[in-house]
Amino acid sequence: MISLAVDAVANPERWPAVLAFLALYLLEVALLVFRHLRFHLRACGTLLVGYLIGVVAFARGGLAGDGRVYLLALPVLATILIGRRAGLLMAILGLFTFAAFAVTTHLEWTTAWLVRKDAACLLVDWAFGWIAFALVLVGLVSLQWHFSRMQQTIAVENSRLHKESERLREFTESIVHNMQEGILIEDAKGCITFVNPKAAELLGYAPEGLTGQHWKTTVSPESVAKVEEEAAKRPAGITSHYEATLLTKGGQRMPVIVSACPLFQNDCFSGVLSVFIDITAHKRAEQQAIRTERLAAMGYIAAALAHEIGNPLQTIRGNLELLLTFGLEPDEHRERLGIA
Length: 340
Hints:
Beta-Lactamase, 5-stranded antiparallel sheet, 11 helices
């Protein structure tokens, strides 16, 4: 653009072409930078502006100028960005444009715009121009071939990765849905976003009935403070295991062991993953074992008391039998019984 501006200072009649180049280049840059537009809209706009730049280049440089490079590159670029039909359309448009400029140059209609007015239609310039044209064509075709190969490789790899991702997703879903432990996922605000079937079954809800509710809905009042204390550790990245009592939909209390870990997304705390196990049967067995131990202890104490009480009674009984057998006098009775 600087060289064009310097050239226009020496030849004021070329300022319109310079201004046209400047406007088109700025529009091209805007289309490439402005990413809020859809990709196809930006691609079509870029191709159109590139075509107009090629037309202006033809008007300034003639058939031996840079315009033919634009018109050659645009079909390949259109094929890469949009597709074969767009590439074919740009190729046809480029051929018509080249033919139009060949005619107008031969008729000397564009000589006032040309930078090289003495080389517009010379055979040497045409020969060198077509050699350059052929070399650029070979380069662009090679580029397109390599790009197509790369696209095919990427497509095959994407297909493989998609299948692998689907397989892993199905495998993970199968594990989660068949686990015998309840799984709850909460967001950063404590609202439930996912419930596996076992958790819904244990709590007596349908899975969609728990989604969106706060975790306090499922925790008994006496365990809320404990769970809040544990939940406060999650943003710091702390995982913990603890006991709590959950509240089913029917109002029954269910003792559980909870394993909870934090979830992060882009290094920001995004929620909690909680896995819980129903320990109701374990608690019952524990209470039964405690009762059994208490009964066993009471039986041992009773046996010990019976033994301690039985020994003196046995002695008394033996002495009484002796008294009945021998019929001794009272003084002799006292002596045998050890009574003063």
